[in-house]
Design goal:
InterPro entries: 6-blade_b-propeller_TolB-like. The model is unreliable at 4-14 (pLDDT under 50). This protein is mainly beta. It starts with a helix and ends with a strand. The chain has one domain: TolB, C-terminal domain (Neuraminidase, 6 Propeller). Strand 9 and strand 10 form a beta hairpin. The protein has 1 helix and 16 strands. The protein has one helix spanning 4-11, and strands at 38-43, 49-53, 58-62, 68-73, 80-84, 87-92, 97-102, 107-112, 116-122, 127-133, 145-150, 156-159, 168-173, 179-183, 188-192, 198-200. 4% of the residues lie in helices and 44% in strands. The strands form 4 sheets. A 4-stranded antiparallel beta sheet has the order 1-2-3-4, with no helix packed on it. It has a 4-stranded antiparallel beta sheet with strand order 5-6-7-8, with no helix packed on it.
Length: 201
């Protein structure tokens, strides 16, 4: 079985294939959710998943049977969600901030971002890695970036990989802290090392 790094490495050698064959195990649409699309999701405890629909303000907790267990109104439109040691983090694109939540969805801390935060993911240091963009839809000469946020101290580190990115939209972090960034304008996945140097595109 290929690792996620090997899969992303294979897929990102050229352009992203428009048709990737996957095996669907099951699909469901929980009762009580009327939105048209899933914006983002992340794992929760006990095989459950947290889902944000259509860039809305609600976080849905769905169990592995597809039943809606809970919904929480964060009063902010969200673009990304990820797990942290203390709970979760969400990116709020309209408010330009990252909110750190407890496991009970209480807002513990809020950090402003200089640009619009899109996709987020946590790394092994319990930092939130953020795709930040000047505009939701890229304009000429936009300077977009990837930022590491220390959720304990609030310190931020810009990862020097902006020259390899046009419009970073989604991100995941491998076990070795390499970052796999989905670039919507390039139509490819860009893999960068921790120091921001390009590994594969």
């Amino acid at each position: 079985m290929l690792t996620s790094e090997e899969i992303l490495g294979i897929y990102s050698k050229d352009i992203v294939p428009w048709r990737i064959e996957v095996k669907r195990i099951t699909s469901f649409w929980p009762d009580g959710i009327s939105a048209r699309c899933v914006t983002t999701m992340c794992r929760a405890a006990n095989g459950e998943v947290l889902v944000v629909m259509q860039w809305g303000p609600l976080i849905y907790l769905v169990n592995k049977d597809g039943s809606l267990k809970k919904s929480v109104d964060m009063e902010s439109k969200m673009d990304g969600i990820c797990t942290l040691k203390e709970g979760y983090a969400v990116s709020c694109h309209m408010q330009k901030c990252i909110k750190v939540l407890s496991h009970d969805f209480v807002v513990l801390r809020t950090f402003e971002t200089s640009l619009i935060p899109r996709g987020i993911f946590s790394n092994s240091q319990n930092e939130v890695v953020i795709c930040e963009v000047e505009n939701m839809h890229r304009k000429a000469n936009d300077k977009n970036k990837i930022v590491r946020l220390d959720v304990s101290s609030g310190s931020k580190t810009v990862i020097p990989c902006g020259d390899n990115l046009l419009q970073p939209c989604r991100i995941t972090v491998n076990d070795n802290d390499e970052m796999c960034v989905s670039d919507r304008n390039k139509g490819c996945i860009v893999i960068v090392h921790q120091d921001g140097s390009l590994k594969s595109e």
